[in-house]
Amino acid sequence: MSLLRNVDLNLLEALAVLLEERHVTRAADRYHLSQSAMSRVLQRLRETFDDELLVRTPSGYEPTRRGREIQSELAVILPRLEMLLRGETFDPAKATGQLRIHCTDYATSVLGPGLLPRLVREAPGITFGVAPLSDQSFTDVEQGRADLAIAGVTAPPSLHWQTLFEEEFVCLLARDHPVTADRLSIEDFIAHPHVVITVLADGQTMVERRLDEHGLRRRTGLRVPYFSAAAGALPGTELIAALPRRSALAYADHPDYRMAEAPDELPPFPYGMAWHPRVDDDPAHRWLRQTVRETTALATRQQTDR
């Protein structure tokens, strides 16, 4: 414990921000310090840990091996320290801090109208950040840069996962599309070009994964980053958009669109949330997850009643 007595614990939070941002000026802005003050903090940290922690490379700052190890440890230690100081009670009306959620625009359109206003109403002192889901999202949750990921892609084993609801694919087409069947055959599905939502680097991987199981490939006519952009591209084309049903329902009564059932080769898939085990018992995170569960259940019931 002699080493601990000589360390300013406030430096650990600053170090977590520096390792996350990998940029002194951005870390300074986020930590509400001047750039020069944050540079002095970094120098103190280097002396404390007897390591450079961050080194300059042609592409910017990168953590050293020791820096990466410390970053992984801080992702566990800091939430536990926060919990220790705060105690087990959590009152969202009085709480402060930040909670960060990664999800797609589909999730914000389906859950956002119920979830986001409720979060802000019940916890006005907390800043909620919503970022697009990406290939990095699960890593960000693992390393403490995000608190929750809501996705249709099952999380890796290092994270906890809970299914919120089961979703199914439907096909959204232009009203005058040459395919007129109420359910698309797999032959029609792969015969026409698709608008692919590139949520992850490999595209709309749930569709590709299901097609791979049957040795099939669809033809990409357009790639877009958002579900809403996929729908906007359809009128006047032979493009097909394979979308989650809840997303496509927004266009069900629009005169420019027609909705058809997806081929049997595209079965339903789970949509859920992922979080790190270290925040299992954190009262703020428990409240966040419970709010997501309740909001999702309400949205699902409302959808069923329509």
Structural account:
43% of the residues lie in helices and 22% in strands. The protein has helices spanning 2-5, 10-21, 24-31, 35-49, 65-86, 105-110, 112-122, 137-142, 186-191, 205-213, 227-232, 245-248, 283-305; strands spanning 54-57, 60-63, 97-103, 126-132, 148-151, 160-167, 169-174, 193-197, 219-224, 240-244, 257-261, 269-275. It has a 5-stranded mixed beta sheet. A 3-stranded antiparallel beta sheet has the order 10-7-11. It has a two-stranded antiparallel sheet with strand order 1-2. The longest helix has 23 residues, at 283-305. The protein starts with a helix and ends with a helix.
Provide keyphrases for this structure.
D-Maltodextrin-Binding Protein, domain 2; 13 helices; 306 residues; alpha/beta; 5-stranded mixed β-sheet; 3-stranded antiparallel β-sheet; Arc Repressor Mutant, subunit A
What's this, in brief?
This protein has 306 residues and is an alpha/beta fold.
Q: What's the overall geometry?
A: elongated
Query: What composes the largest sheet?
Result: 5 strands, mixed
Provide mean pLDDT, rounded.
88
Number of strands: 12
Number of helices, where a helix is a run of at least 4 consecutive DSSP H or I residues: 13
Q: How large is the share of residues in beta strands?
A: 15-25%
Order of helices and strands: HHHHEEHEHHEHEEEHEHEHEHEEH
Topology, please?
Blueprint: H1 2-5, H2 10-21, H3 24-31, H4 35-49, E1 54-57, E2 60-63, H5 65-86, E3 97-103, H6 105-110, H7 112-122, E4 126-132, H8 137-142, E5 148-151, E6 160-167, E7 169-174, H9 186-191, E8 193-197, H10 205-213, E9 219-224, H11 227-232, E10 240-244, H12 245-248, E11 257-261, E12 269-275, H13 283-305
Parallel strand pairs: 3-4, 3-5, 8-9
Antiparallel strand pairs: 1-2, 5-12, 6-12, 7-10, 7-11
Helix pairs in contact: 2-3, 2-4, 2-5, 3-4, 7-13
